[in-house]
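Sharing a chain and its predicted structure for anyone who wants a worked example. Both blocks are below, sequence first, tokens second.
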Amino acid sequence: MKKLTVIMAFLVASFGAANQAQATNGHQMMGLGAYGKSMGGAVTAAPEDTTTAITNPAGMALIGDRADFNFDLFMPTRSSDFTGAGGEADEGGSPLYLAPAVGWTGEIGNDLYFGGGMFLTSGMGVDYNTINSVPINAAFGDFTPWKANLYSQYQFWKLAPTLAKKFSDKLYVGASINIDYQQMAFKQKFSDPNSANYIGADLSRAVGAMGFGATIGAIFKVNDVIQIGATYISEQSFADMEYRLSAGDIVFPDGTGKLYTNSDGTYSMGMNFPQQLSFGIAVTPNEKFKITADIKWINFSATHDQIDLSGDFTMVDMVTGAPVDTAGSMPLNFGWSDVMVYAVGVEYKVSSMTTLRAGYNHGDSPIGEEDVFNNIVFPAIVEDHLGLGVDLALGSRWGVGLAYMKTLKKEIDGKNDMMGSDSNTTITLEEQSLLIAISYKFAKQ
């Protein structure tokens, strides 16, 4: 009971301390905890800490009775550049975020293990200065840049109570119930400096929603050298997020010469989290050396391609401003595509006290050049990630891990703005993080 009290206290403190984080495979962390980050996220077949509750639940029956506390200090650099359209460039948002993760597991009898944890698995955020952007009136011969007001914050938490079973010395199977929470706010608004006209969407009052899903996984030891693993994470189904908007928060073109406009009221947006499937292999030729490799599919196209904002909209003529129609929803065309992730990790045990790790992870950007303008405040575009780490055993129970992750700078030049013109807009993202992990192995009763 004392163990559980300490862990639950940490969960509450961690949830209150975290802000939005950046993520790497789309908006999802490429690896969790010091072990996962240093191995490039290639952990499906070779778990070593309790983050396996959400990467492969079967691993909870392999890692022994333990608790892990991970503190991820995340440092992103992101920018939007409108200089190609005669505007300005800016970097914005906090340079430092805390992304904690805590988990535990223990045997409850007959090779059956119970555990779980609370993990901040995904997020992003920007906060730019008001800057000159693109000439929205260019089609009418006016090339004056409009003022851009750009902001976002998104975070995704997962609580994962997990059961895992050791069926034999070769086969391990596990499943977790996913209890989720996500919160989202954003503003992408452009104002005419020569008039009171503006277009865009202002949903900058953060709103959250609960969601649920499930994860199943298995690990099979082929022999003393090779181990394979697989994990399926269902689509996480969420309740709608409800935004209380004031008239004029939405003035958005539909692409046919009309604008969506809103009145005072409550507007709802449903956004689920994508299903995922991963396979992994671990090769351990001797007791000192291990190589792991993963391949993962993330189904962003099913959840982040088009998201509808529902409510009472009035359609007005873009030129005259006269009402011409009504609508019950407005599509937000983020245009995200599915992502394939490839990861590899290497581990070398220097001694019984010290273990070194390195990893590489590649996942294509879910955002293409045709969707840059729709994702200025959601620049989840980085593709290549490098990880390094070291674990130090402090006696037989305690351990400390350190990891460093660096993403290679990625930029994408956009094709189209919201008016259908060449946007001449570039978004850029670069990330690094420093992780500190503390682990404790419980004695068998």
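Comments welcome. DSSP finds three helices and 25 strands in the chain.
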